[in-house]
Amino acid sequence: MPKAGFFYATLKRSIALVGALVIVSWGLEASFRDQFEEPGKGARLRIFDQDPSLDKENGGISTVFIPRKISAGPSDLFIQVVQTSVRPNSNGDFTDYTPKTPEFDSVHTFAVASSVYQMYIQDLWVLSTLFPKSLALKQATKIFDKRKFQILKITPHAGEDQNAYYSREEDGSRVLMFFSFTSEIDKKTKIHTCQSSEVVAHEAGHSFLDLLHPEYFVSQSPQTGGLHEAFGDLTSLFWTLSQPRQCGNVIIDTRGNLHRQNFLAVLAEQFGKEIGLKEGLRNADDDVSLLKVEQEVHEISRVFTGALYDILADAFKAAYQAKKDQQDMTHILADTGVYLRHLFLHSIVESGNFDPTFSNVAFQMLTLAKARANAPKDPLDNLGWPGFIKNQFTRRDVPVALNSRALSFLDHMKVKKAGICGTIHRKFT
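-> structure tokens emitted (429 positions)
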């Protein structure tokens, strides 16, 4: 079955695009907005902030709030944990479970995946009000408004493997699978990939993009596959910036210079180090060029992810100069992250039903940024986003021009991949 995750394997070519996504209506016709309850309702859950390796004593545990009803599992209308089911306490919360137990892992994986969905669904609603004439945004919100897709099923402890992945099966079922492995460093410590918020957010990102563009999942284009991987990595980054405590920690780590070594840029620190890498699986703060990178989906994704990270750094620097007398640095970073997230998600939604290249999406971002600058409604509209976008993609040899295919010969290369991910691929340095 196709799988999308951290590693590289073989795609079954037999999957046809027609009927690739089996749409199942659950008979739930109320708007997704009805699920965001009024103040005083909802559920509290506990999670690992980032990665267990970042805090040796307690794993950096935080309590998060999801403003809708969460049932046993945990489960809601979009997501369900199907292994080591847990129940809420008398207050409707999932806060009574001990960290680093299967029960806590069930709560943690659900909470991160659910908050990723909540983040992006709310983004779509905001964008659809900002751009009411966009048919693509209307269609995207309708997907979640009617919930015409199968629930995402999570297995936190799926077995022994150095892997984690999202998969959409032939019957339309959608699963997130997280595996465990023994450290290659000390040969005894058990590493559970589900305990990394970044890994969970990455895989949840794959599953969300698959609902927006199911055709991308079976594409054989390296750049489209790279976009899927970049979407996962960027989901981890944007999700981290959406957590107030973590956004503040980024400022503390970097003193406001996002090009200092920091946990926001490095993906899955524990995972990477325990399989023998110097840091995490990937580092978003890079200068990788499309002309020089290996044409494998995880490698090529670094070009796109790196461009957006540098756009974030450029925009944050400009936003700080513009707003430093009005807001503290943490809030400015959070607002800048939201703006870039909206710009990126909107460009993905508008990219159409084809095999998009990096240039196609970059051009969408540039076009949207110019449109927002020409009719500013947000204080951040006039930061200079078009210049940041053009500069960062161009220096990575990604043309930002209308209908540019950006090395079109690469789009027709036959690459072997299972959805996007599968077995180990170590070239993440």
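The chain has eleven helices and eleven strands.
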